[in-house]
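Is this the right way to post structure tokens for a design question? Let me know if I should format differently. Anyway, here goes:
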């Protein structure tokens, strides 16, 4: 009986400290405990040095009927003078967007606009 109670207590504790599991289309979500935004990419939750995950995701971010891969986003931001781990957030801040570091529809649209791709 004590083993069952102990096991139940441990399971309840684990559930209390886990996140709800909801992620955006790219597998990311806001981390309320530690702050910031992170991605799972189909892997279990994990941290990396400097918060940079080396795993690439094959998914693309869509804007209307157009899509832009992560590689294209990095290349296009570099062409606009934004490089490094905070390139997306810096671009967003400089262009009047919510600086969350996530290349969503509005960010992709603004990148295309700035490059004259619309």
């Amino acid at each position: 009986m004590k083993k069952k109670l102990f096991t139940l207590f441990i399971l309840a504790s684990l559930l209390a400290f886990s996140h709800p599991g909801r992620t955006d289309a790219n597998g990311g979500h806001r981390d309320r405990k530690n702050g910031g935004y992170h991605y799972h990419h189909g892997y279990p939750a994990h941290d990396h040095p400097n918060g940079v995950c080396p795993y690439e995701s094959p998914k693309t971010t869509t804007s209307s009927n157009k899509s832009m891969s992560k590689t294209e986003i990095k290349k296009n931001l570099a062409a606009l003078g934004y490089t490094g781990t905070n390139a997306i957030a810096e671009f967003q801040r400089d262009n009047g967007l919510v600086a969350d570091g996530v290349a969503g529809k509005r960010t992709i649209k603004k990148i295309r606009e700035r490059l004259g791709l619309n």
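Format looks fine. Someone answered above. Worth noting: The longest strand covers residues 60-63. Residues 70-115 form one domain.
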